[in-house]
Write a structure and sequence with these properties.
By secondary structure, the chain is α+β, with helices and mostly antiparallel strands. The protein has five helices and eleven strands, in the order αααββαββαβββββββ. Helices cover about 30% and strands about 25% of the residues. About 25% of the residues are buried.
Length: about 220
C-alpha cells in the first residue's frame, strides 16, 4: 500500500515521503542540503535505511545529486511538484478537520442510558496522534477480515520504525511491497500474521516497519 501519486514511478512509501519532505524543509530553512547522518537523525532511522530510501528516490527521479559528494541532494522538479500537491491536500484536509465533527454525547450499545447533550468536537488528529505523524491508508484486500478490517476501509496510522509484538503495522517487505498485518518478531525472522485462514503468514528476514495502525474509519 504505497502512497500513489500521478504516475507508477512516483509511488512512495510514507517513510520515503517523510524523507523527501525533510530534504525540502532543510534546504528551505538553511539553504543547503542535509547529510545522510542528519536525515537519519531527524527521522530516527539508521544511516543504511536512509541511504536505501535515497537510492529509491533517485531511481524514481525525485532526487538528484552527486554520488559521494556531501550536501548535494536536491529534490527534482517532479519531486517539488509532488510536494506542492501534497501540501495543498494537507492544507485542505487540515482546514476540514480543524473544526472537527460535533461530539454530541454517548449512546448505549447495551442497556439504554440517559441522553446527555455535550458540546465538544472530535477530530482525527486530536484523537489519535499529533498531525505530523498521522496519516491514513485505504485498505485493499481481505487478509485482515478476522480483525474486522475490510476492503475499502481506511486505517489511521502513526509513522514509526519500530513496533511491539502483536501490534497492527504497515510493513515494507524486501524494500518494495507494503502490507497491513499483525507484527511478531521471532528468533530468526519476522512473522506478519493475517487474520483470514485463506491467507498464509508472511515470514521475512528483510522487513521494515513504516507505521503502527491506531484506528479505523469506515463509511456504511
Amino acid at each position: 500500500m504505497p502512497l500513489q501519486t500521478s504516475g507508477p514511478t512516483e509511488s512512495l512509501t510514507p517513510r520515503q515521503l517523510q524523507l523527501l519532505k525533510a530534504i525540502g524543509r532543510f534546504q528551505e530553512s538553511l539553504c543547503y542540503s542535509p547529510t545522510i547522518a542528519e536525515l537519519a537523525s531527524e527521522l530516527d532511522i539508521s544511516r543504511s535505511t536512509a541511504f536505501e530510501h535515497i537510492s529509491e528516490l533517485r531511481r524514481k527521479g525525485l532526487l538528484s545529486g552527486c554520488p559521494g559528494k556531501a550536501r548535494s541532494l536536491r529534490p527534482t522538479l517532479k519531486a517539488q511538484e509532488l510536494l506542492n500537491r501534497f501540501a495543498e491536500r494537507v492544507v485542505r484536509s487540515h482546514s476540514a478537520d480543524v473544526k472537527g465533527i460535533p461530539l454530541a454525547g454517548k449512546v448505549a450499545a447495551g442497556t439504554a442510558i440517559e441522553a446527555i447533550e455535550e458540546h465538544e468536537e472530535l477530530s482525527l488528529s486530536s484523537h489519535f496522534a499529533p498531525e505530523d505523524s498521522l496519516f491514513a491508508l485505504e485498505v485493499q484486500g481481505e487478509s485482515m477480515m478476522g480483525e474486522d478490517i475490510r476492503d475499502g476501509d481506511y486505517v489511521i496510522c502513526r509513522s514509526s520504525c519500530t513496533a511491539d509484538n502483536g501490534q497492527l503495522v504497515i510493513a515494507i517487505i524486501d524494500n518494495e511491497n507494503a502490507t497491513l498485518k499483525r507484527f511478531y518478531k521471532e528468533k530468526n525472522h519476522v512473522r506478519l500474521q493475517p487474520a483470514n485462514d485463506a491467507y498464509e503468514p508472511i515470514y521475512s528476514e528483510n522487513c521494515r516497519i513504516e507505521a503502527v495502525v491506531l484506528g479505523l474509519v469506515r463509511r456504511f
